[in-house]
Amino acid sequence: MSTIDDLPPLRQVIATHGLSARKSLGQNFLLDLNLTAKIARQAGDLTGTDVLEIGPGPGGLTRGLLSEGARKVLAIEKDARCLPALAQIADRYPGQLQVIEGDALQIDPLAHLTPPIRVAANLPYNVGTELLVRWLTPPSWPPYWQSLTLMFQREVAERIVAQPGSKAYGRLAVLSQWRTDVRIALSLPPEAFTPPPKVSSAVVHLTALPAPRFDADADVLSRVVAKAFNQRRKMLRAALKGLTPDIEDRLHAAGISPTTRAEQVSVEEFCALARAVAHA
What we know:
Blueprint: H1 10-17, E1 29-30, H2 33-41, E2 50-54, H3 60-67, E3 72-77, H4 83-92, E4 97-101, E5 117-122, H5 128-136, E6 145-153, H6 154-161, H7 171-179, E7 180-188, E8 193-194, E9 201-208, H8 218-230, H9 236-239, H10 247-253, H11 267-278
Parallel strand pairs: 2-3, 2-5, 3-4, 5-6
Antiparallel strand pairs: 1-8, 6-9, 7-9
Helix pairs in contact: 2-3, 8-11, 10-11
């Protein structure tokens, strides 16, 4: 039996249900239930909270979230092989676990969740960044979620928390830091997973701010940032020249030198530039 509930250890669950991780689904399973409970605790106090989990696999983090007091976990799983293992967890926690089989990119979870809502997931590597960008760019702010506690490859985690002037600084950093408080909460070596990935991983915790840190139109900011970093080695006057004919004037209006490169521009300056472009 495991140390956090009376269900079988995850290694036994995987053997029972033949759940070898599939590279095509970006799967790497965490088998240490003490570790999954530790990750769940990074999400904060889950009492009275619904939690959205993407890609639960055999349910290690799911069990951690439930044992830490989540009111309900909505788990979206693409791999039908994992459903019997998740059904065992649902039986152990009656009425607290809902499993939806399908693609998280295609499913609207809001019909199944009641605020307050947090998101916690060991994200499949192949969709993690896309899901994060979606959560950071909803039609209106604040979003439906209070916080995101997400496992990424270490390299991606470092891009999310990167500061201007570093090679890791880019679109993910600007979008994350504009609207959230963000930190790396935990680092995990490859051997924590089955099978071990070739890279280290990290858990990133993002807390939604009530309002964005600086005023800017979200669509304009996204467009400016994407274009700026798409050619990050170019000066901004060249990288952004297709944005508006008088881009040099807009850069000057925002207090940014046209010869600056994107990685030197702070979140606040990008927001000023988005306002200048919007008013062009």
